[in-house]
User: Which sequence fits this backbone?
């Protein structure tokens, strides 16, 4: 699954929604301003990742590491549509250490490695095609 990092300003931090007995999600909307027009980018955090958004508020500058997913859906009319989704995996304040839960018993002030410290996966490129 492809990974991207979105950097921008938080516009909305949604509440955790319990979709079913076994599935919960929480959405964040990031305003990304690298071009002429601002882009509003919704990112879903699922299951145990919903708690990563605690403590973040609209106006915070953040970087979010996401997995890109896509799916196909065919309606009752026989028309097939394709959807793209971003699933948040990590979030950090701009210029700060990643916001990931510390393992129990871990020192609270120990530095947490960032995605920049991880080696690229085999066959993974650093550049986007645009």
Assistant:
């Amino acid at each position: 699954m492809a990974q991207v990092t979105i950097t921008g300003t938080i516009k909305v931090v949604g509440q955790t929604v319990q979709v079913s007995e076994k599935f919960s999600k929480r959405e964040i909307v990031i305003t990304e301003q690298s071009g002429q027009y601002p882009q509003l980018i919704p990112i879903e955090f699922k299951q145990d990742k919903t708690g990563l958004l605690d403590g973040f508020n609209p106006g915070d500058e953040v970087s979010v590491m996401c997995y890109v997913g896509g799916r196909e859906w065919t309606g009752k009319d026989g028309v097939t549509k394709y959807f793209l989704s971003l699933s948040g995996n990590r979030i950090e304040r701009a210029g700060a250490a990643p916001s990931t839960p510390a393992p129990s018993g871990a020192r609270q002030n120990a530095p947490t490695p960032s995605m920049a410290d991880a080696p690229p996966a085999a066959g993974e490129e650093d550049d986007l095609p645009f």
